[in-house]
């Protein structure tokens, strides 16, 4: 990747840490690690997003700060999240 690639990794690492800290600050108001499934699917997905995010935060920070999170790991995570959203949307369209 060379020098240019190194700078891309540094910028992406700073962006990841910034976004993770922003998520922690936004979560701090409620401080809830629970999923309300009886309150409708939108609220359940909202709670699930927050719960998974806060539980995965230590590992994501560790990976970002140590530089282990490579570009390919980010692509795989993004592709997995995209597929999850697509399949969930298809499931909801069938209802």
Q: What's the SSE blueprint?
A:
Elements: H1 2-27, H2 41-66, H3 71-94
Helix pairs in contact: 1-2
In short:
With 95 residues, this protein is mainly α. It has helices spanning 2-27, 41-66, 71-94.
Question: Could you characterize what this model shows?
Answer:
The protein has 95 residues and is mostly helical. It is 80% helix and 0% strand. The protein has one domain. It has helices spanning 2-27, 41-66, 71-94. It is flat, with a radius of gyration of 16 Å. The mean pLDDT is 79.
Largest sheet: none
Helix content: over 70%
Extract low-pLDDT stretches: none
How many helices? The count is 3
List the domain count as a whole number: 1
The N- and C-terminal alpha carbons lie at a distance of 47 Å
Structural class: mainly alpha
Total strand segments: 0
Strand composition percent: under 5%
Order of helices and strands: HHH
Name the shape in a single word: flat
Average pLDDT: 79
Rg computed from alpha carbons, rounded to a whole number of angstroms:
16 Å
Key terms:
single chain; 95 residues; mainly alpha
């Amino acid at each position: 990747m060379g020098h240019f690639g190194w700078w891309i990794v540094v910028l992406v690492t700073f962006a990841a840490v910034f976004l993770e800290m922003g998520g922690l600050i936004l979560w701090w108001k409620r401080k809830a690690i629970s999923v309300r499934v009886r309150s409708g699917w939108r609220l359940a997905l909202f709670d699930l997003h927050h719960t998974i995010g806060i539980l995965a935060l230590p590992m994501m920070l560790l990976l970002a700060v140590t530089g282990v999170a490579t570009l390919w790991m980010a692509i795989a995570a993004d592709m997995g999240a995209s597929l999850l959203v697509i399949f969930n949307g298809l499931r909801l369209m069938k209802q």
